[in-house]
Design a protein that fits this description.
141 residues; alpha+beta; Arc Repressor Mutant, subunit A; three-stranded antiparallel beta sheet; three-stranded mixed beta sheet; Dna Ligase, domain 1; single chain
């Protein structure tokens, strides 16, 4: 899914934010990576689109886009923070702290855990992207 399929302009305005060219360029840069984009990848894409946009503007734009729910920010141990357009396929990651191997897991794999939180604590977890750090079968021995 790209951000073009969402009413991102209305989302920004509804949350009290202006629609600026810089915010739209940052959103385009994230979309261009079709998945997880690191801050470095975003910066390179933004510089290609508009070299006048500085790093602080990129970070502020990321904060706003995340706050209004247009993008999702995750932390992957070996990679650092990654960004993707919200609403893309729900998936999660297992990341090995030893070798950096990354496995993608489906929502159905973690539904029992989320249901446990709901049953035991009455807490409904709302997430479409989680990262679990640990050790793969090769590294844990």
């Amino acid at each position: 899914m790209s951000h073009e399929e969402k009413d991102y302009i209305r989302t920004l305005r509804t949350k009290g934010y202006r629609v600026t060219p810089q915010r739209l360029i940052v959103l385009d840069a994230i979309c261009a990576h079709q998945g997880h984009a690191t801050i470095g990848e975003i910066q390179l894409s933004v510089k290609d689109m508009d070299p006048t946009i500085d790093r602080s503007t990129i970070y502020r734009s990321l904060d706003v886009l995340r706050e209004v729910g247009l993008i999702v920010e995750s932390e992957i141990e070996a990679t650092g923070k990654v960004y993707r357009v919200a609403g893309e396929s729900t998936h999660h990651h297992l990341v090995c702290l030893g070798c950096g191997k990354e496995l993608t897991i489906s929502q159905q794999d973690i539904d029992p855990l989320l249901n446990h939180f709901l049953d035991k604590y009455g807490f409904a977890v709302q997430t479409d992207h989680l990262v679990f750090n640990g050790f793969c079968s090769d590294c844990k021995s």
